[in-house]
Design brief:
The chain is an alpha+beta fold and 243 residues long. It has five helices and eleven strands, in the order H-H-E-E-E-E-E-E-E-H-E-H-E-E-E-H. The strands form four sheets. Strands 1-2-3 form a three-stranded mixed sheet, covered by helices on one side. The chain starts with a helix and ends with a helix.
C-alpha cells in the first residue's frame, strides 16, 4: 500500500514540473472524483453536499465541500504548489566567448545552490499564444534533458572543497548549447506549444530537475525527489481532503 502511494506521489511530481502544472494535475484529480469546476466571475448555485473547486491564474486551486445544515464548524488544509527553482528571464540567450550559449536566470524561492549542479535539467511553464480565436494560455514542458549547470573541474579551482560562495549570475547559469544553438531558444519554446515562433506573446518559464524520484535505504525507508518542497505536502493535503 505504501509503495503504491509513493508511486502515485512520484507520478504526480513528474507531471508537475512547475506550479502551473501542479494546479492542472490537482484539478484533474478533483474532476475525476466528482468535483465541479466553478468560475469566480459567475454566480454560484451551491447545493448541500456539493463538491466544488476554483482556480486562480493557473497558479492556485481552492476546493471545498458544502456541509450539512446542522454542521457548525469547518476544517482547512493548505499547501503551496510551487518549489524553489530558477526563472528564465526574457530574451535569455547569452553567447559566451563565441563558443557556447547560457540562459540568463533569476532565483525563485530559497534553494540550496549546490544541489543544482551537474544534474539533467529542462524547462517548463506557460506561454501566452496568439490563436485564430484570440489569446490562449498553454502549458509547456520540454520533456528531455536540455540543460546542465556544470561544476568546474577541480584543477580549475583547487579551493572548491574549502567552501564556495556562489554568484548566481556567474556560477549558476545553465549551459544551453554550443555556438550553433544561438537564436534557437524561442523556436524550441514555440515547438513545445505547437505553434509558430511569432505567435508567442509572453512566457513564464522555469528550470526543473529531471533526476528520477527514488525510494532507497536498507529497508526502503527513505525517498529522494526534486520538488518534495512542497508537492509532497500538496499531494498529501489533496489525499486527506478527498477522504
Amino acid at each position: 500500500m505504501i509503495q503504491n502511494l509513493n508511486e502515485e506521489l512520484f507520478s504526480f511530481i513528474k507531471k508537475s514540473p512547475t506550479g502551473f502544472h501542479a494546479v492542472h494535475e490537482l484539478a484533474n484529480y478533483l474532476t475525476k472524483t466528482g468535483f465541479e469546476c466553478l468560475s469566480e466571475g459567475n454566480t454560484w448555485n451551491l447545493v448541500e453536499g456539493g463538491k466544488y473547486f476554483v482556480t486562480r491564474n493557473q497558479s492556485a486551486i481552492i476546493a471545498f465541500k458544502v456541509s450539512r445544515k446542522d454542521y457548525s464548524g469547518f476544517h482547512i488544509a493548505a499547501s503551496h504548489s510551487d518549489s524553489p527553482t530558477f526563472k528564465i528571464k526574457d530574451h535569455p540567450e547569452q553567447m559566451v566567448k563565441g563558443k557556447y550559449v547560457q540562459l540568463n536566470t533569476e532565483r525563485y524561492g530559497g534553494m540550496i545552490y549546490s544541489t543544482w549542479f551537474d544534474r539533467p535539467l529542462s524547462i517548463a511553464g506557460r506561454a501566452l499564444v496568439k490563436t485564430e480565436t484570440g489569446v490562449a494560455t498553454k502549458l509547456l514542458n520540454i520533456d528531455r534533458d536540455l540543460l546542465v549547470i556544470p561544476n568546474l573541474a577541480v584543477h580549475m579551482d583547487r579551493t572548491v572543497n574549502d567552501g564556495m560562495k556562489y554568484n548566481p549570475q556567474v556560477n549558476l547559469l545553465p549551459l544551453y548549447g554550443d555556438a550553433a544553438s544561438k537564436d534557437t531558444f524561442n523556436k524550441l519554446v514555440a515547438e513545445a506549444c505547437g505553434t509558430a515562433e511569432e505567435n508567442i506573446i509572453s512566457t513564464d518559464l522555469f528550470l526543473y530537475n529531471r533526476t528520477a524520484p527514488t525510494v532507497w535505504g536498507a529497508h526502503n525507508e527513505y525517498m529522494s525527489c526534486a520538488k518534495l518542497d512542497d508537492l509532497e505536502c500538496a499531494f498529501s493535503s489533496l489525499k486527506a481532503f478527498l477522504k
